[in-house]
Write a structure and sequence with these properties.
The protein is of the alpha+beta class and about 550 residues long. The protein folds into three domains: about 160 residues, Nucleotidyltransferase, domain 5 (2-Layer Sandwich); about 100 residues, no CATH class; about 140 residues, no CATH class. It contains 21 helices and 14 strands. The strands form four sheets. It has a five-stranded mixed β-sheet with strand order 3-2-1-4-5. Helix 13 packs across helix 19, helix 15 crosses helix 16 and helix 20 crosses helix 21. The longest helix has about 40 residues. It binds a DNA duplex (12 and 16 nucleotides) through helix 9, helix 11, strand 10, helix 16 and helix 17.
Length: about 550
DNA sequence: CGTACAGGTCTA
DNA sequence: TATCTAGACCTGTACG
């Protein structure tokens, strides 16, 4: 596979052709304006583009109508390699290490090809590429790590393509929903009519004419003045209480949340030309999950999903994995008994059928406790049963927890490392960082609390992180298959990814290809399982729905 | 007046 | 029928 390293040289771009990753045999210099044409031509034969950061190169290419098949994202790969315990860090160190460590993605709404005064321009991508290839080649886990880096880079392409495409969003439907629930859009600075009505009712019921329910402190004082025994104002707490004004207050909180998070201001800011465009940040979470930036893309409330509607003649294929994390745990630990329970579509029901636990609720509670570190109550009581029945799976998360409590680093199946613990007080026997402030809150109880919290984090890290790797492989393989499915159609005629949410993907597709897309999504899931777990018999069944509106998928 | 944080609520 | 993992982002409020 030929690699072509792209470097910025002022208003020009330098492309270094490196067969099989060796030294460059050909160097092409071209004006920035000719880059898109150059890439389009070069894409007719297999090539991997090596660049500092996908968010700096790909949006401009997409705006010019150019898709690339594969890339190597040096920023994302650097972040993985720098924290991986299966990498010799000495091979990565260079004069520019700090610069690569600090490099941030670009998420400007303006699809300008290159930002001005970019710290990336002071870094040598070709030299970094050489270091990364050497570090990867020397790793005892180079196959798995190589898969992770390829998938991470592919995810970067998907993320840029999803922002470019946008999630189809009907602002008219969204506005109708808002008007029905809140009343007509008010002038700036005023509450909608329905909230005003509720506010009057609440102030009357609590005999507090100046009460502002949006002020947690003020609301708490008003509740206590009314004789209610509360120390917080969360809805869950308030639901337990009896008071004539409580229903109105809970309704106010529900509608106020809708207005603040996904009201008219949100529509103005994030929906344009019938598309919700947010930025996805691959690797944005330490576990390897994606973060997002803009519009709260990872927490789009179910309440407003009716406004996500496919174009005329198109459909959404909405797919999510049932119980991804317990399945991943079974696969990575090689726990045959748990894999057997996972053979059914409902893993928790499978655990009941095998006699491991009495009810589905017990199974779910127990597994969540095992993966999140819940040790109290019902969830903790399940652990002995689960440990007997699934010794390898439970043993793996327990060992990750113990390692975290000892202050050690853990890693995912493909080699993504957890962040090292910080702070001298948590592990006083360990190396003390220079420049740390004097120890604060360093009582024995506080240290134990922090140790246990660290154990819960590392326990969850290995499962959530490997789950993210499965999802990344799923996404990357799906991207490739969808492109082939589109035949020779133009980008606007092809099925394409529009949304990704940890274990759920939305594909926007011409209606006549929806059945093919469904098949494709399932094939990609099976391939992701093979990539991570080889021939180990663990299934990843999908719930797939072909719908006109996202809201119809549940 | 701008920044940082607390409290709350939505997601998987 | 509970306080356990990872986030984004809103308002109000305290602080400098």
């Amino acid at each position: 596979m030929n690699r072509v390293v792209l470097l910025r040289r002022g208003a020009a771009v330098e492309a270094r052709e490196c067969p099989d990753g060796g030294s460059p045999v050909e160097v092409t210099r071209l004006p920035v304006g000719q880059l898109a044409g150059f890439v389009r031509d070069r894409e007719t034969s297999p090539v991997r583009w090596v660049w500092d950061d996908t968010t700096r190169w790909y949006p401009g290419l997409l705006a010019a109508g150019v898709r690339v098949e594969r890339c190597w994202d040096l920023r994302l790969s650097h972040a993985v390699l720098r924290r991986s315990p299966v990498v010799d860090q000495a091979l990565l160190v260079g004069a520019e290490t700090q610069g690569w460590d600090a490099l941030q993605p670009v998420t400007a709404a303006d699809p300008a090809l290159f930002p001005l005064d970019d710290p990336a321009d002071r870094l040598d991508a070709a030299a970094e590429d050489v270091r990364q290839q050497a570090a990867l080649a020397a790793s005892p886990q180079r196959a798995r790590l190589g898969l992770l880096l390829a998938a991470e880079s592919s995810g970067a392409l998907v993320a840029a393509e999803m922002t470019s495409a946008g999630l189809p969003w009907r602002a008219d439907l969204h506005e109708r929903l808002l008007t029905e629930l809140l009343g007509p859009r008010p002038v700036a600075g005023r509450r909608p009519a329905v909230l005003e009505g509720l506010l009057t009712e609440i102030r009357g019921a609590f005999r507090d004419p100046g009460l502002n329910p949006d002020s947690p402190g003020g609301l708490l004082r008003a509740l206590q003045a009314a004789g209610l025994p509360v120390t917080d104002t969360r809805s869950w707490t308030l639901e337990q209480l009896e008071h004539p004004g409580m229903l109105a207050l809970l309704e106010y909180k529900r509608l106020s949340r809708l207005l603040q998070a996904n009201g008219w201001n949100w529509l103005d800011a994030w929906v344009r030309d019938g598309r919700f465009r947010s930025y996805f940040l691959p690797g944005g979470v330490v576990t390897g999950r994606w973060a997002s930036n803009g519009g709260g893309a990872l927490s789009v409330p179910v309440q407003v999903r009716p406004a996500a509607v496919a174009d005329d003649g198109w459909r959404f294929v909405v797919s999510d994995v049932a119980q991804l994390e317990p399945r991943v745990l079974a696969g990575m630990s090689g726990d045959v008994a748990m894999a057997e329970a996972a053979r059914s579509t409902d893993l928790y029901q499978g655990m009941v059928a095998s006699g491991a636990v009495a009810t589905r609720a017990d199974a779910k509670l127990g597994m969540l406790g095992a993966m999140y570190g819940g040790t109290r109550g019902e969830s903790g009581r399940m652990m002995p049963r689960l440990t007997r029945r699934y010794p390898r799976a439970i043993g793996l998360v327990e060992e990750a927890a113990r390692a975290g409590e000892r202050g050690e680093v853990v890693h995912t199946l493909l080699g993504r490392g957890s962040p090292a613990p910080t702070g001298p007080w948590a592990w006083p026997e360990g190396p003390v960082e220079l420049g740390e402030p004097p120890e604060q809150g360093g009582s024995t109880e506080e240290r134990d609390r922090r140790r246990r919290a660290r154990g819960r984090f590392t326990r969850n890290f290995v499962v959530q992180g490997t789950g993210a790797e499965w999802a990344l492989c799923w996404l990357a393989d799906l991207r490739n298959r969808l492109w082939r499915l589109g035949g020779s159609g133009t980008a606007a005629e092809r099925p394409h990814l529009v949304f990704f949410l940890h274990d759920e993907v939305l594909v926007h597709t011409p209606e006549h290809l929806a059945a093919d897309v469904e098949d494709t999504v399932r094939r990609a899931a099976a391939e992701a399982g093979r990539l991570l777990f080889g021939s180990f018999p663990i299934d990843f069944p999908l719930d797939v729905a072909v719908v006109a509106s996202w809201a119809d998928a549940d």
